[in-house]
Amino acid sequence: MAASQWTFATAVDTAKALANREISSVELTQLAIDRIARHDDKINAICVRDFERALEAAHAADASLARGERRPLLGLPLTVKESYNVAGLPTTWGFPQQKNFIAAEDALTVTRVKDAGGIVLGKTNVPIGLGDWQSYNDIYGTTNNPFDLGRTPGGSSGGSAAALAAGYGSLSLGSDIGGSLRVPAFHCGIAAHKPTYGLVPTRGHTPPPFQPLPNEADLAVVGPMARSAADLSLLLDVMAGPDPL
User: Fold this and answer.
1) Catalytic annotation on 16?
2) Domains and CATH numbers, the chain
């Protein structure tokens, strides 16, 4: 059950409510944090939490909204697949030998999301090497499907799909080669889009310990996940565009 009407609201509707000052970013962010604290010991979608910085960013977003600023994601809490670099947080891709690798800078798409006003709650679980249609690794354990804890949310973006299905924010960043966006969307009843190859830059979606240089791996893309098609479009517009490097 949702504690708030905003828990499962679309990103588009929530962004309008934020702009109209019907709810604050701090309230939204705290709602998501409280929901994670209440449910995620069973679901295990959020493998890396970043709540303190999220609340700081939410306070800043509210100040921006009060000044009349308008950005596409301003004040919206969201999650990011573990395989994206987020400065100051671990990026492991589920490899136990990389459990202490800390990213020095954000992936390019994460930078774009933050510049658009998005509030990063934390990182979502993956299978080792992003190479399976489930979401388990020896560092963070198993992610379960919110609709049935005995079943998988799919993979490799299973943590993100489970987070969306559980009401942990309205958007998430995922990735896909052979179904890693689409399979979890199917398993969890959410929406995901595998963009045209090269439309969204992949710099910083890099297995550790490699440097986050621009790269092009056959069929590999990063893309948006949400609970509606309109929300996918909102996030894709923020993520897409050439890598300046």
Assistant:
1) no
2) 11-239 (3.90.1300.10)
24, 83, 135, 156: the active-site residue: 156
Phi, psi of 171 (to 5 degrees): -140, 155
* For residue 2, pLDDT beyond 80: no
Tokens of 168: 């942990």
**Which residues is 192 bridged to in the sheet?**
225
Q: Please write the tens of the pLDDT for every residue from 179-207.
A: 999 999 999 999 999 999 999 999 999 99
Q: Whole-model pTM?
A: 0.97
Q: In the structure, what pLDDT confidence band is assigned to residue 57 with cuts at 50, 70 and 90? A: very high
In tens, the pLDDT along 94-121 reads 999 999 999 999 999 999 999 999 999 9
Q: Is 228 in the active site?
A: no
Catalytic residue among 83, 160, 175, 180: 180
Task: Say how many C-beta atoms besides its own lie within 10 A of residue 23's C-beta.
Answer: 17
Question: In angstroms, rounded to a whole number, what is the distance separating the alpha carbons of residues 172 and 158?
Answer: 11
Q: What's the token pair of residue 192?
A: 């995901």
180 is catalytic: yes
Catalytic entry in 25, 81, 135, 160: 81
Question: Can you say whether the dihedral through the CA atoms of 6, 134, 225, 63 is positive or negative?
Answer: positive
